[in-house]
Design brief:
Length: 156
C-alpha cells in the first residue's frame, strides 16, 4: 500500500491552518478526558496561541500504554491499557460530518496501536461549538494509560 497525504497551509481542499498535539496520561480504569475541540481554553498551538477548531482533517492517537515512559509523576506500567475513543454523550463530536457516525460510537485502541483518520475533502470533519465538539478518551485498562494525540484542521 502506498499513499501520500499532503496538506498545504490555508483553508479548503488539501489545506490546514493549525496543529495541536499533546501527551497525556489517564489514571486507572475509568480515567477520562473530554477534549473540547472548539474551546481555546483547553487547546493551544506550540506558540501558546488559542485554537478554536471548526473543522478537523487529521486525528491521530498513539496508545503508548505498552511502553515504560515517565510522564510527570506517572509511569505507564500496564502493558495492556486500552483506550476508548468517542462516546462522550452531551455535545459529542458525532453524526454527519464527523468520523463518529452516531452518538455513542466508540473506537477501542489497543496498547501500542495507532489510530489515524484523515479527511482531505473540502468539508473535512465539522466541529460545531456547543453542539458537537467533545472528543472523549477513556482508559479502559487496569493501570495508567499513556497516549499522544494530534489534531490538524482549520480554525474559526
Amino acid at each position: 500500500m502506498d499513499k501520500v497525504f499532503q496538506l498545504a497551509f490555508g483553508k479548503g481542499v488539501g489545506k490546514s491552518e493549525q496543529i495541536w498535539h499533546d501527551r497525556n496520561d489517564l489514571a486507572a480504569a475509568g480515567g477520562t478526558v473530554s477534549l473540547d475541540l472548539s474551546d481555546a481554553a483547553g487547546l493551544s498551538n506550540s506558540f501558546g496561541g488559542a485554537i478554536h477548531f471548526d473543522m478537523i482533517r487529521v486525528l491521530m492517537i498513539l496508545n503508548r500504554s505498552d511502553e515504560s515512559i515517565s510522564h510527570g509523576a506517572h509511569v505507564a506500567a500496564t502493558l495492556d491499557a486500552e483506550l476508548d475513543i468517542g462516546g462522550s454523550g452531551g455535545n459529542e463530536w458525532s453524526g454527519t460530518g464527523t468520523p463518529f457516525g452516531a452518538v455513542g460510537d466508540i473506537i477501542t485502541l489497543q496498547a501500542g496501536s495507532i489510530l489515524l483518520l484523515t479527511n482531505p475533502i473540502a468539508a473535512g470533519w465539522t466541529v460545531d461549538p456547543g453542539v458537537k465538539d467533545l472528543l472523549k478518551i477513556i482508559n479502559n485498562g487496569g493501570g495508567i494509560a499513556l497516549y499522544d494525540i494530534v489534531l490538524i484542521g482549520e480554525v474559526v
